[in-house]
Amino acid sequence: MCPNYEFATPASPSRRSFLFRLALALNGLALLLAGVPILGYLLGPLSRRAAQTWIDLGPVASFPERETRLAVYENPYRVVWDGATAKIACWVRRLEGDRFQVFAVNCAHLGCPVRWFPQSRLFMCPCHGGVYYEDGSRASGPPPRGLFEYEWAVRAGRLHVRGGQIPTLSEPV
Amino acid sequence: MPMRFATAIAKWLEDRTGLGAALTPILGHTVPRRTASFWYVFGSSTLALFALQVATGVCLALVYVPSADQAYQSLVYLNHGAHLGWFLRAAHFWGSNAMVLVLVVHMLQVFLFGAYKYPRELTWICGVFLLLCTLGMAFTGQVLRWDQDAYWGLGIGASIASRAPGIGPGLVHVLLGGPIIGGRTLSRFFTVHVFLVPALLMALLGLHLWLVLRLGVNEWPMPGRLVDRETYRKRYEEEVQRDGVPFFPLAARKDMIAMAAVVLAVLVCAALFGPHGPRGFPDPTVIDTAPRPDFFFLWLFALFALLPAWTETFILLVGPVVAIGFLVALPFLSGAGEKSWLRRPGSVLAALLILLAIGTLTGLGTTSPWSPLMDGWSATPVPPIYVKGRSALELRGALVLQFKQCRNCHSLGGEGGLRGPALDGVASRLTRDQLIRQVLQGGGNMPAYGKNLSPAEVTALVAFMQTLHPVDEPVARTAAGPLLGPR
Fold first, then answer.
1. pTM score, two decimals?
2. Predicted complex ipTM
């Protein structure tokens, strides 16, 4: 052992502890500068810019009165690689004239696609047996509410709905 | 000469790495004699299946395209175009089923043998999270099979997530990678399935195995030999010293047999039954579909259908937290005392009840009697025996029954939906007035048909249903009616 170890090393204790604290601070800074953008990137989907927009469903005349038809639109939030999943369906019920009801196909229970049966004027869900009347109100089964309804408007003879996000209990269309 | 050359290489490698010296004591560590048993092989069997999943998964990822517009086609190509692609997809699918199954058996064995007790609490907790990771792999893997089941399964996941109070909408957006299911969603689930969860799983697995080595394999539980925190470890050490056997090869040979057996079983299933899906092109506008989850989630699917509506949100959100919390807390709630299942009737009963409940729900999930048979009205005609000798009005009623989708929920002659009661013999259960009331007002899970049937249709329908009774049972009638003559 060198008795003059403390003197022999060029770094004094204060310098060594300074270097250690500097290392901690630099790594903390690096962690912060890398971590904040990573976290922000991961939580990016939380910002709902342009999630809900008005969508053209076609001329009013394409929906016969007192009938319910399946309409298809392209999700406004789409990306090129969405493929067929960019297409979204909805049920359009035209009462008469310019009076409409537009329902999401997603069952209010757990989101399976409900099917319209014009003969019995019922919507039925293939998953857990939810059934709805033609006005979208709940008829039977587990759904806690009626079908989700889109906000709609007729502009220049064309039917528009406000859509773009998956309808759920906490965020009906 | 070649032999000496190989020995020289091995010697050189050992000199530089020292791995042999490090691993030999691990392989040869002593374990209690009776644990060299076929009851102790389920953990290593799960590990073997995991290795198979990694190997087949990496191969599938060489061809699979994790892009919403091409994933389906790449799966079809794997099934039909890529050389042996069908076999690797099948092995990966059957391997996932087997892994969940063997993991559950492992967990049951550990529970019944009291292996979760002191000092192996952390080994158990690690195992609980390994189970969650495995179920996470199962769900995300199902999504990568980008078909109609995957699309609507995501819808179900989003619907459940949305029910979380306050954070529901945010949770849905983070889960789907945006406001709606699409290309971003698949990329997200691909990353979770091939990077995130496997990394977590391997880390947990390392810790799990390390803990098994450090704390020793649980000794064979003897009734009456209680776990005491003060003396347990000393006693275990003494027993292993006195009557232990080296893990390799004495215990390991049974592990190796079981590992080979499960992997071979998976490969045989893969060769015999082939790959699963993809079922149906993932076009959300094709709504003529009846989504079903994979085997391991059928019990949840059944639970969602059978829970009373008012309990649903509570159970969906609180249930998993309570279940996971209980599993994590278990080694602290009963960390000492009796280990043998022969002296723990409550634990055996609880395990049996849970198994029975999940088994029953899975069984129900395979038939899903609560789902309407969507093509019941068009695909299952009224049996000829029910239309023979009927009047014109009654025959018209049979047509109404068929045309108004009654058969989607009601069966006749054993065919049709099972959501409502079978209609064979309905006339001997319900009077004419009761039938009319039920059709018009519905109730008891039946929609009211009052607005959707004309009076003439109701008359005809009820007239037909009144002919549906066994020959030796009369038509039901109200006690208030006249005693004699037709009503």
1. 0.90
2. 0.89
